[in-house]
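Protocol step 4 of 5: obtain the predicted structure for the target chain.
Materials: sequence only (see below). No template structures provided, no constraints applied. The aim of this step is simply to have a reference model before the mutagenesis design in step 5. Sequence pasted as it appears in the construct record:
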Amino acid sequence: MLGSSRDGNSGAWWRLETKRVRHKRSLGPRLWGAAAGLWFMLPVCAAPIPGLYHTGVGTNGALLAAAAVDPHYKLVQSADGSFPGPTTRVVTDAYPIPPWMANGPASKWIAPQASQVTGNQAGNYKYRLTFSLSGLDPTTAVISGQWTSDNAGTDILLNGQNTGNSQDGNFGVWAGSFTLNSGFVEGTNTLDFVVNNAGTTVNPT
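Step 4 output (structure tokens):
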């Protein structure tokens, strides 16, 4: 079991804090940019890759209220039949926060249900973000970010392909960072975060 909390509970909580993205158009001037709602520095002729968001924010990048539905991340795999997805919700500011990282200032935890005092069934959960590179050169796209979870983050999938990015579920800090610079396609792309809720019974995830 990975990432046990102080009283022995374990779960699969996570959030993504994307720092920057970069791209070029296939025609016209070279463009470098970052997605709306992310922290970034833009040189001249910069333009964003649309559709990239932290977890737990609205379309304007502002933090969502506790228990709100995250409009960007969909739960496409669930180990809990009572919470099959695709809805994901912002976790409420109560146990197990702390010992998990506090919500904010730029993102919040999301989960199959808002209250994680009891949690969800053990097993794998997959959270999906969909974005578009229509009209852009996918060979120049770059996404960098940080993520954490309880328990382990077993992989990040780009368009269904393993990227080899995992982290051990050290939920008190950002447990892993990643940079993706290949595997993008023109048009619709999917970014999946796979999290394992360890144990054999219901626990926070």
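Step 4 remarks: Confidence is low (pLDDT under 50) at residues 1-46. Residues 123 and 183 are 27 Å apart (CA to CA).
Proceed to step 5.
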